[in-house]
Amino acid sequence: MGSLNVALCGLLFLALGQQPVANGQQPQFARSASRLASLLRSFAAMSQQLPVMEAFYTVQGEGLFSGQAAYFIRLGGCDVGCSWCDVKESWDADAHPKHSVEVLVAEASKHPARIVVITGGEPLMHDLGPLTKALRAAGFRTHIETSGAHPLSGDWHHICFSPKKFKAPLPEIYLHADELKVIVLNKHDLQWAQEHATKLPSQCALFLQPEWSKRESAMPLIVEHVKAHPAWRIGLQTHKYLNIP
Ligand code: SF4
């Protein structure tokens, strides 16, 4: 912060020392102040701290990008409360160390793939604008997995929307989802999945994925449903079958 303060004072000095100019042009003072504000915004964005449960390089196991190498960032914090959640340790954001956007992008850049998947927890509990902006500037595709229960922030190449019965999604997510992933435990979930699908753009890919601990009983239901409603596909957590960490 010391160097920022010096820069800030310097810019203020320069800005305040300038005289307005004629001919309707923006006064030098205003231009300097605007540059200063922009500088401060960039600094604040890069220094934003996000709680990170884990970050790792792997192969995406689910959905449209299944089989492709990607860097995963699992953010802490979730208030959705799925009873069958397999990452309950992610729920408490305060339980996880915070890292700056700058550090997260630097870590992702150590690996050759140029896809970053932001997951959670519920990642939209955080403002993801600065992170996605920095990732895009570094040449990454930005992907997110979200329940849609919090306001959409960030600039995304791919949004995987996975609604949960425990906390309703916000309406805006339906306009932006590229992929719908519904976790299926029982027959009612198939009907519930269809209710979401009807609100989505026609190009949105539709996946029915068995909840891992219920896969034996859910799979036959999903297979019959997909055969009867071919707009849907079976979604598998291939990384779990293949033991890919
Ligand atoms: Fe767990 Fe995801 Fe449900 Fe949150 S939204 S409780 S992280 S499964």
Description:
This protein has 245 residues and is an alpha/beta fold. The chain folds into 2 domains: 3-44, no CATH class; 49-242, Aldolase class I (TIM Barrel, Alpha-Beta Barrel), CATH 3.20.20.70. It is 34% helix and 21% strand. The protein is built from 8 helices and 9 strands. The protein has helices at residues 2-16, 28-46, 101-108, 129-137, 173-176, 187-197, 215-228, 238-241; strands spanning 49-59, 69-75, 98-100, 115-119, 141-146, 158-161, 179-184, 205-210, 232-234. It has a 9-stranded mixed sheet with strand order 3-1-2-4-5-6-7-8-9. The two termini are 38 Å apart. The structure holds iron/sulfur cluster. Iron/sulfur cluster binds at residues 78, 80-82, 85, 87, 90, 120-122, 147, 164.
Helical content band: 25-40%
What is the H level of CATH, i.e. the homologous superfamily of the largest domain?
A: Aldolase class I
Number of continuous helical runs: 8
Identify the quaternary structure here. Answer: single chain
Biggest beta-sheet profile: 9 strands, mixed
* Reported CATH architecture of the largest domain: Alpha-Beta Barrel
CATH third-tier fold name of the largest domain? TIM Barrel
Q: What's the CATH C level of the largest domain?
A: Alpha Beta
Return residue spans where pLDDT drops below 50 for at least 5 consecutive residues.
1-18
- State the order of secondary-structure elements, H for helix, E for strand: HHEEEHEHEEHEHEHEH
Name the bound molecules.
iron/sulfur cluster
- Radius of gyration in whole Å, from Cα? 22 Å
Side by side, the strands of the main sheet go 3-1-2-4-5-6-7-8-9
What is the arithmetic mean of pLDDT?
90
The 3D shape can be described as elongated
| Number of spatially distinct domains | 2
Count the E strands: 9
How much β-strand is present in the residues? 15-25%
Which structural class do you get from the secondary structure elements?
A: alpha/beta
Termini separation (Å)?
38 Å
